[in-house]
């Protein structure tokens, strides 16, 4: 307990850093994932090809390698001087977007084809059909896998600590270097991650209950 109380500010900053990284990259992943999922089911072949390439590349690239590219290649080519926080969010968000895309695409495929055909018959465009007809119905199916993806994202954010981002897992390195018991440090870090996982699970369970169909 003394390890926690004596370094409460450090644990607090790490907790806030993990929450911030998870929230920002999660939002980016959701936006990109839904957009790429739309590309994957689009009637336009180049968009489908782009969506397929996006998912294939990012899902088969180790996240650590993606961080290395983001931190050591991207600033040299496009954005010199960009902050490590933004780079961490980009790496996590882009990587997670591929998994969000596949979850959303699976949800889209559960919607009966007749829904899209009916929408087209009354003159709705593909974008209108997707936004107003398909996605609202697919959301209920998508929520459970999205919960697992966001939990995985929370744990993946630990990699950002190795790239100059304050977060929970980086706390153990600071305290370990000061000679504190590693097992005690890991215990408090694990409990903090457990709190975040329970909060994310609870939020998605609440969303599922609000959107469930009465039987």
UniProtKB/TrEMBL annotation:
ABC transmembrane type-1 domain: which residues? 15-208
PROSITE patterns recorded: ABC_TM1 (PS50928)
The record's subcellular locations are: Cell membrane
Any one GO cellular component localisation term in the record: ATP-binding cassette (ABC) transporter complex
Q: Which Pfam family, giving just one, matches this sequence?
A: BPD_transp_1
Q: Which species does this protein come from? A: Streptomyces daliensis
User: Which UniProt keywords are listed?
Assistant: Amino-acid transport, Cell membrane, Membrane, Transmembrane, Transmembrane helix, Transport
| Membrane-related topology note | Multi-pass membrane protein
What GO terms are given for molecular function?
transmembrane transporter activity
Q: Does the keyword Membrane apply?
A: yes
Positions of transmembrane segments: 15-39, 60-79, 85-104, 141-163, 183-207
Gene Ontology annotations of biological process type: amino acid transport
- Using the UniProt record, give the first listed, main subcellular location: membrane
- Cited PANTHER family: AMINO-ACID ABC TRANSPORTER PERMEASE PROTEIN YHDX-RELATED, MEMBRANE COMPONENT OF AMINO ACID ABC TRANSPORTER
- What family is reported? Belongs to the binding-protein-dependent transport system permease family. HisMQ subfamily.
Q: Can you say what this protein is called?
A: Amino acid ABC transporter permease
Q: Which InterPro entries match?
A: AA_ABC_transptr_permease_3TM, ArtM/GltK/GlnP/TcyL/YhdX-like, MetI-like, MetI-like_sf
């Amino acid at each position: 307990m003394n390890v926690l109380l004596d370094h409460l500010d450090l644990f607090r900053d790490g907790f806030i850093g993990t929450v911030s990284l998870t929230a920002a990259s999660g939002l980016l992943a959701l936006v990109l994932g839904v957009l790429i999922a739309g590309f994957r089911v689009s009637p336009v072949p180049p968009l489908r090809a782009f969506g397929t390439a996006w998912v294939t590349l990012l899902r088969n690239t180790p996240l650590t390698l993606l961080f290395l590219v983001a931190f050591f290649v991207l600033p040299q080519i496009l954005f010199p001087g960009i902050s490590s926080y933004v780079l961490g969010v980009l790496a996590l968000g882009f990587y997670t977007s591929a998994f969000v895309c596949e979850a959303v695409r699976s949800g889209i495929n559960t919607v009966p084809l007749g829904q899209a055909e009916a929408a087209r018959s009354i003159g709705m465009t593909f974008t209108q059909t997707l936004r107003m007809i398909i996605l609202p119905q697919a959301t209920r199916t998508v929520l459970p896998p999205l919960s697992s993806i966001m939990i995985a994202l929370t744990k993946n954010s630990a990699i950002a600590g190795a790239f100059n981002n304050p977060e929970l897992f980086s706390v153990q390195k600071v305290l370990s270097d000061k000679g504190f018991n590693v097992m005690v440090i890991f215990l408090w870090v694990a409990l903090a991650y457990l709190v975040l996982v329970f909060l994310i699970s609870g939020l998605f369970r609440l969303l599922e209950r609000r959107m469930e169909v009465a039987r």
